[in-house]
Description:
Layout: E1 9-12, H1 22-35, H2 43-49, H3 54-60, H4 71-84, H5 94-103, E2 107-115, H6 116-125, E3 134-138, H7 147-156, E4 164-168, H8 171-180, E5 184-187, H9 194-197, E6 203-205, H10 208-215
Amino acid sequence: MFDRESLRTIIWDFNGTLLNDMQVCVDCMNIMLRERGLAGLDLPRYRQIFTFPVREYYEKLGFDFRLEPFEIPAHQFIDHYKVNLTNAPLHAGVFEMLSQLREEGFRQVILSAMEQALLEDTLEKKGILGFFDKVAGIRDHLADGKLGMAKELVASLGNDRSGLCLIGDTIHDFEVAAGAGIPCLLVAHGHQSPERLLQLECRVFSNLEELRQRLLRRTK
Length: 220
């Protein structure tokens, strides 16, 4: 259970939670769907069907892995995503929130399903890399999940779960936090719809401003 008073370290998810890249993901996927003669995707449907592992999401879109291995569209998507990533802004209030959390003495780290080198480069280009004591991304682009990484990260932080909290935007983030034995808070402005997140036994915030008012003692 989340305890604001004992919180010392925040483990941030990046994509969807801090980075508003949902439309970029939809646009990149639509390129691939058109190439295969499959029905296009819009943002509301994306937020209703996106899931981990991402192979299941591709199958919901109509990809047939009897015709091509999953790795082909998975890597094609990353190629498109890298080209269009500059079009993805940070969510409103990210810089102010990270700044205030640092001012109040919180340690902040990143746990992301983005590949490590791309993650570090993106954080730097967005101007927020310096806020994080640790940055943990995946080792390849297939995005099978973050549970093993979360356990390693928690251990590297001293294995004291009482002062940790994971903040994300997906059901997978909730599952990762539970598997790692730490509390979770979710923000419903990301890759999955509020309706899906509200089915979980987890506190769900509409946006970062709502979350900021819960986490921080003083407001601006």
